[in-house]
């Protein structure tokens, strides 16, 4: 049974009706292998390449620079592992940040086990990386910089263009995890100056299981998998044509709505933040003064366990999150919030609200009321809430 009021769009989005219709049509009618040379196969190839052009237009690049993947995690892995392994240097070093998604952090941890050195640049209390810290972290053996475009927990936008300039001047390729930015703000890897840019379909109202990686023309990248010559030899395996078509339609839809939806969601986000601050004492908006994507609100509620709040709000019909869905069930508090200087106790008291197409002002007002009631009830039960 679906939750009536869904405020967890950073975890995943529902498939848009137009996207679903396009995908189902392809699954029912265009069943050929896009690598086959007969008419049935070439019909699939045509759909695949149309989708590639749609995604390229969305990202402002050439269609030959787009490789379809199974999602954002694979795109991140392909970029990071592929770029590092393509380097011929005997010693290798990667620079990333302390607030990256697990798809980046765990890939870097794997590289460390292979003998690659990794520097994790810290962030300030505002949740934003200082480009000068990235520059100071560079070494003669640095082969890659990886920094996200927008943080999945706080929504804070990182200074990617400035970091890319630093990388370019040093001759070091730059990867950007754009999964939480694409569709919310302009996501043009050429304008940012990065060499690799990852996106994921299920954050864009497309289905799970499809994503894409922008690979700048001329950038060196070793494939992770070995098989046929699919995706220009970058990613072997029979192409997911229906998924690619869905991503292409979702990309077109996102681009057409980008400006208007950003304004609408910004207004809803501000309404939610003001409402929470007015209705609930002793709260703090995380990264509230930082540049952010328009849909994300992260709030620390003193004296309340975030997971208890998720359950309390779910019982009232609201789907929210304590942070990254990829870390749900984890015992450890948010690594993002702790990197911003919060204590473990504070990090465990945070909730993330991420808005999307289905949300409106009435839902936001209902959520504020439910939050106030839930916090009041839980604080009465909490031995940690010492405020009078």
Map the helices and strands.
Layout: E1 5-6, H1 17-29, H2 39-59, E2 66-69, H3 72-86, E3 93-97, H4 102-113, E4 117-121, H5 131-137, E5 142-146, H6 160-170, E6 174-177, H7 189-192, E7 196-200, E8 211-215, H8 241-279, E9 283-285, E10 296-301, H9 306-315, E11 318-319, H10 335-339, H11 344-347, E12 350-354, H12 361-381
Parallel strand pairs: 1-11, 3-4, 3-5, 5-6, 6-7
Antiparallel strand pairs: 2-8, 7-8, 9-10, 10-12
Helix pairs in contact: 1-8, 2-8, 3-4, 5-6, 8-12, 9-12
Protein traits:
single chain; 2 domains; 388 residues; alpha/beta; Aspartate Aminotransferase, domain 1; 7-stranded mixed beta sheet
Superfamily at the CATH H level of the largest domain?
Answer: Type I PLP-dependent aspartate aminotransferase-like (Major domain)
- Which structural class do you get from the secondary structure elements? alpha/beta
Backbone shape: globular
Which consecutive residue ranges, at least 5 long each, have pLDDT under 50? Answer: none
Helix count? 12
Second CATH tier, the architecture of the largest domain: 3-Layer(aba) Sandwich
Query: What is the CATH third-level topology name of the largest domain?
Result: Aspartate Aminotransferase, domain 2
* CATH C-level name of the largest domain: Alpha Beta
Helical residue percent band: 40-55%
The biggest beta sheet reads: 7 strands, mixed
């Amino acid at each position: 049974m679906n939750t009536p009021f869904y405020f967890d769009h950073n975890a995943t989005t529902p498939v848009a009706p137009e996207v679903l219709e396009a995908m189902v049509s392809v699954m029912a009618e265009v069943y050929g292998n896009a690598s086959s040379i007969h008419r049935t196969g070439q019909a699939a190839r045509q759909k695949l390449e149309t989708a590639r052009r749609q995604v390229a237009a969305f990202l402002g690049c050439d269609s030959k620079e787009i490789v379809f993947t199974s999602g954002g995690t694979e795109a991140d892995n392909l970029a990071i592992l592929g770029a590092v392994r393509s380097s011929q240097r005997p010693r290798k070093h990667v620079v990333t940040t302390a607030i990256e998604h697990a798809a980046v952090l765990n890939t870097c941890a794997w590289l460390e086990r292979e003998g690659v050195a990794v520097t994790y640049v810290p962030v300030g209390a505002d949740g934003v990386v200082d480009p000068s810290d990235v520059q100071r972290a560079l070494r003669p053996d640095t082969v890659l910089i990886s920094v996200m475009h927008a943080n999945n927990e706080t929504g804070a936008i990182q200074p990617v263009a400035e970091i890319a300039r630093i990388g370019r001047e040093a001759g070091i390729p730059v990867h950007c995890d754009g999964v939480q930015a694409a569709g919310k703000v302009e996501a043009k890897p050429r304008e940012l100056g990065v060499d690799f840019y990852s996106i994921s379909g299920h954050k864009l109202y497309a289905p799970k299981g499809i994503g894409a990686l922008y690979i700048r023309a001329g950038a060196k990248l070793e494939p992770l998998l070995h098989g046929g010559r699919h995706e220009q030899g970058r990613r072997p395996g029979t192409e997911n044509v229906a998924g690619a078509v869905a991503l292409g339609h979702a990309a077109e839809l996102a681009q057409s709505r980008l400006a208007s939806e950003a304004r609408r969601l910004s207004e809803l986000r501000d309404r939610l933040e003001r409402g929470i601050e007015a209705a609930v004492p002793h709260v703090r908006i995380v990264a509230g003064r930082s540049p952010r994507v328009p849909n994300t609100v992260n709030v620390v509620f003193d004296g309340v366990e975030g997971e208890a709040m998720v359950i309390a709000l779910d019982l009232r019909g609201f789907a929210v999150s304590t942070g990254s869905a990829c870390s749900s069930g984890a015992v450890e508090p948010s690594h993002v919030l702790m990197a911003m200087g919060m204590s473990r106790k504070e990090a465990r008291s945070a909730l993330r609200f991420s808005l999307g197409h289905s949300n409106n002002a009435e839902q936001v007002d209902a959520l504020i009321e439910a939050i106030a009631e839930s916090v009041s009830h839980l604080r009465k039960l909490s031995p940690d809430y010492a405020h009078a």
